Amino acid sequence: MAHCTQCGTTIPDDAAFCASCGAASVPVTSSPVAAPASSGSKAPLLIVVGVLVLALLAGGGWFLKGYLDDKAAQKRARAQAEVAADFVEGAFISYDTRLVAKSVSRDYADRVDEVVEGSSEDGAKVNRKWDGDVLVLSVRDADSPYEVAIEADGDKESAEVTLDVTGESEQSLFMTVELDGSRWVVVEFNGSSIASMFGDEESSDGSSSGGGDERACQANQRTIEGAVQQYLATDEYNSIDDISGALDYSNYLIGDYIKDVPYCPSDESSTYYIYDDGTTDCAAGIHDHF
User: Fold this and answer.
1) HEC readout, 140-151
2) Residues 6 or more apart from 254 whose CB is under 8 A from it?
3) Which of 198, 239, 245, 259 is deepest in the core (most CB within 10 A)?
4) Spatial separation of the C-alpha atoms in residues 111 and 127, rounded to whole Å
5) CA distances from 211 to 200, 215, 277 (A)
6) Is 32 inside a domain boundary?
7) What is the DSSP string of 80-148?
8) Is the dihedral angle over the CA atoms 232, 280, 90, 174 positive or is it negative?
9) Which residues, in sequence order, are CB contacts of 208 under 8 Å at separation 6+?
10) What is the predicted pLDDT for the residue at 248?
11) Structure confidence at residue 118 (pLDDT)
């Protein structure tokens, strides 16, 4: 049905004039009534979307935190490996007292010559490179080239560092570094405290003791042990006699003892005491693993 455009009366679709007002017909077809809008609420959908967004944000936050924690640990581990490398290189390879001073407590900064095994003129050159998280020291101008692979665990305050020596002979050493203020320092090398390496004995409260003669003796012990460790790391050896021959130029004497020794693989292992200039009360022990 159509409607009159003048008065709105309903007229037949084919009518020429409106029967009510006589106006010429211009039919206007009525439109069907539109369906009513849905009365359903969008709130559940919004809640679901919100939950998903929060879940994504939370997951992303944990991922970001884990990533940042891993990066921080990696950064610490590298700093710890660097300070360990400074100590080993300076004390036993290049004989650079500046490197040793950087790697130990400031209390020992003016005494580093007590643990450095020789003069810088006699030291070997060291090339440092990173292989992933491992710092590799390459010594090429020594009689027997070798490498020291250094890796730290990245702990926050006290960290363990492993040093694997490879070359004609192989050896594994370990080190402990601790945070001293804003810098990492070496506090223990291969089972010996840095305090003892400098001739100091630490008491239970962390203070050091020992008279001048005792400190000199302890420092000499560390010098002997360091010389032996360096020999083991750089030269091929088959018996304790080889070490004896290598140290003859310094007039070291060797006595053979059996003793229960810490850090050895067995409870009873051969321990060779090396005496400097025949001073029997100032001996340094090394372990025979042949």
Assistant:
1) CCCCCCEEEEEE
2) 240, 243, 244, 272, 273, 274, 275
3) 198
4) 26
5) 9, 6, 21
6) no
7) HHHHHHHHHIIIIIS--HHHHHHHS-GGGTT-GGGT--S-GGGPPPEEEEEETTEEEEEE-SSSS-EEE
8) positive
9) 195, 200, 201, 202
10) 46
11) 76
Helix (H, G, I), strand (E, B) or coil at 276: strand
Asked if 205 and 250 sit in the same domain, the reply is no
CA 47 remoteness from chain centre: 44
Last residue of a domain, one of 183, 210, 229: 229
Q: Establish if 122 belongs to a structural domain.
A: yes
Backbone angles phi, psi at 29, to 5 degrees: -75, 135
pLDDT tens readout for residues 94-150: 889 999 999 999 888 888 887 787 777 788 889 999 999 999 999 987 678 899 999
Structural contact between residues 241 and 221, judged by C-beta atoms closer than 8 angstroms: no
d(CA 135, CA 95): 19
Which residue range forms the structural domain that includes residue 100?
A: 78-229
- Name the token pair of 163: 């040093």
Q: How far is CA 204 from CA 31, 105, 207, 209, in A?
A: 99, 18, 7, 11
pLDDT at 185: 94
Q: Are residues 185 and 251 in the same domain?
A: no
Give 282's contacts (C-beta < 8 A, 6+ positions apart): 217, 220, 221, 275, 276
Q: 138 — phi, psi (to 5°)?
A: -105, 120
Q: State how far the Cα of 95 lies from the Cα of 123, in Å rounded to an integer.
A: 5
User: What does the block give as tokens for 145?
Assistant: 């080239």
48-54 contacts, C-beta under 8 A, 24 or more apart: none
Verify that 256 and 186 share a domain, yes or no. Answer: no
